[in-house]
Amino acid sequence: MPLFPRTLAPRRQIGLLTALTGAVLVALFVLPNALARSYVNVGNVGEVVRRGFVVYWRSGSQNPPGELEDAITFWFRFHLVKAGVAALLLAVVVALGVVLWRRSRQRADGRTGSRLALGLSQTPVALIGLFALVVLLANLQGAAAPFASLFPMLTTGGGGTELGTTLTQVQDQLVAYPGGAHAPALTRMVDDLTTYHVVFAALTGVLALALAGTSVVVWRRLRTASDARSRRTIKVTGTASALLAALVLVVVLANISTATHSPEALAALFAGGW
Questions:
Q1: What letter does residue 181 receive in the DSSP assignment?
Q2: CA–CA gap between residue 113 and residue 125 (Å, rounded)
């Protein structure tokens, strides 16, 4: 089903989709915190996490208690809402890109200025689409492992002597992990970090396959292209898709490697790196 009636002029479609893109962009930065917040929100989540982590580490349980559990729940909802809005933004931007592409095809034999304006308008649309895709993947990852995505907050913003002592104990126990005595909380932390990277490896793996498939399909059309402009477009699109697939594959492999070395990755995080 088309997004707009066929009788709606292309210029009206472009205008409405552009306005909708702007509205969804604003929603991306406003709605997640507004819909997910409780007493925990983006303004105080770091403080709550740092305070709650000290209690969690000393609790002797794998299940985060009290404030930390509240922070994890908020962070899960936050990422879930943001992923939903990002998916909507991506859909709107794709629709806008299709309308602009069709418009440029209709004006292929028109004035040079008109073609150039349409061509230039497709560049920011592509950049916003890429932004929406990255935000979508990152927030699906965060929703799948919200505790792990909170780990960087433990090393920023202070937290006092108690937190510093706790993080030192985490680092000491990670040296011999999984051997040696360690707090139950550490097992949960390592497992969550593994999930965090496995999920992103799976998501980006699907994206890499999609890009590689797109490249293959596009290159096959080269044999049937009837004019130089179409052949040039096919070559650029096919090459760009293949290069992006290779780049995304590197991200997949990096996340698989990190997932298989989660204790080392966690130690690097608390030592000041990732």
A1: -
A2: 19
Q: In the numeric block, which tokens belong to residue 92? A: 């709107």
- Find the helix packing angle between 228-260 and 262-270, rounded to 10°: 90
**pLDDT for 115 beyond 60:** no
Residues 206-224: tens digit of each pLDDT: 999 999 999 999 888 777 7
Rg (CA), the chain: 24
In which residue are the tokens 């979508």 written? 136
**Contact at 8 Å (CB) between 37 and 74?**
yes
Instruction: Using alpha carbons, select from 233, 261, 215, 247 the residue that is nearest to residue 108.
Output: 233
Enter the pTM of the model: 0.88
Nearest to 151, CA basis, from 195, 200, 192, 184: 192
Cα separation, 4 vs 12, whole angstroms: 10
Of 266, 274, 213, nearest to 238 by C-alpha is: 213
DSSP-derived letter for residue 145 is S
- Which DSSP helix (H) or strand (E) runs through 16? helix 10-36
Tokens of 217: 């399909």
CB of 204 within 8 A of CB of 248?
A: yes
